[in-house]
Design a protein that fits this description.
80 residues, DUF1450, alpha+beta, DUF1450 domain-containing protein, 34% helix
């Protein structure tokens, strides 16, 4: 099962570029970076990503990574 995670390049100042690099190493994620995710300024307010099309945000990039991993774990448990 692949989880699609999309990042906004303008959000990298929060450290989401490091989250993206970590997720790219994980076999269950397809990671994409775009110049804009049309979040209308959200990229300047908080670390966020789109996970399977849904907006996921957190207070820090590390917390965002943890949330994304929890989503994957939840999806795995829902499919068993």
């Amino acid at each position: 099962m692949k989880v699609i995670v999309e990042f906004c390049a303008n959000n990298a100042h929060f450290g989401t570029d490091e989250v993206m690099k970590k997720l790219e190493q994980h076999p269950n994620f397809e990671v994409y970076e775009y110049g804009c995710l049309t979040g209308c300024g959200m990229c300047y307010l908080t670390p966020y990503a789109l996970v399977n099309g849904e907006t996921v945000e957190a207070e820090t990039a590390g917390a965002l990574y943890d949330v994304i991993i929890r989503i994957l774990d939840q999806m795995k448990s829902d499919n068993t």
